[in-house]
Amino acid sequence: MSTQDFSSLNLPQAAIDNLNSLGYKAMTAIQEQSIPLAFKGHDLIAKAKTGSGKTAAFSLPILNKLNIRFFGVQALILCPTRELSAQVAKEIRRLARYQQNIKVVTLCGGQPIGPQIGSLEHGAHIVVGTPGRIKDHLRKGTLVLEGVSTVVLDEADRMLDMGFYDDIETIIQQTPSKRQTLLFSATYPEKIQQLSSDFQSNPVEITVESVH
Ligand code: ADP
Ligand code: MG
Fold first, then answer.
1. Ligand nearest to the CA of 153
2. Which ligand is nearest to the CA of 157?
3. What is the tens place of the pLDDT at every residue in 17-43?
4. Which sequence spans correspond to the domains of the chain?
5. How high is the ipTM of this complex?
6. Class of domain 29-208
7. Contact 59, 34 (CB under 8 A)
8. Hey, which bits of the chain come out as E strands?
9. How far is CA 172 from CA 37, 48, 108, 139, in A?
């Protein structure tokens, strides 16, 4: 059971007010355990069930270190499906509502690539998407990841089940080695360990059994 409210984090008052207006009063257990560590710059392996509030657990740390004046991709969030990518992008936009001009671009397959290229040309701070389409953009040179300081692997277990390991590897290799890598998963199969040892440095493991 979590009782910590968001004001225990070192967030601007406008961010706290926005969270409260979204109905976020107390942190969920995974948020309480992961956000302070993520703020300190640690890599994390966070295991928690669906519905436990993982999106805000990685999005608040991303928003907290974003440089809005730099119109380059600073955070990359990989998700297994188009639907999950859309949900994550929507949640980030809600969490970022107190700040002006944060650009979140969603890059997923099954959608025309032209408008995605157009959005990227206008500048994006945060990219959310599926590994296949993100790899396509890297191949075309329409997405550049050299300014990325945070990579999130959301629903990492599902991405591995879907055979995305090699794509994830190709993508992460194009990000700076000095980055923060946050891995979120509902389960913890052996392949997750492999993913972590390949792409994280000294990750802190967090496991939350219940949802709240
Ligand atoms: P997960 O990714 O772990 O499945 P989500 O990030 O999608 O979970 O969050 C599940 C739901 O809980 C969403 O509707 C989200 O808006 C809500 N939520 C997240 N954190 C909080 C919080 N601290 N207080 C209230 N609601 C929250
Ligand atoms: Mg989620």
1. 2
2. 2
3. 999 999 999 999 999 999 999 999 999
4. 29-208
5. 0.99
6. alpha beta
7. no
8. 44-48, 75-78, 104-107, 126-129, 150-153, 180-185, 204-208
9. 22, 23, 17, 13
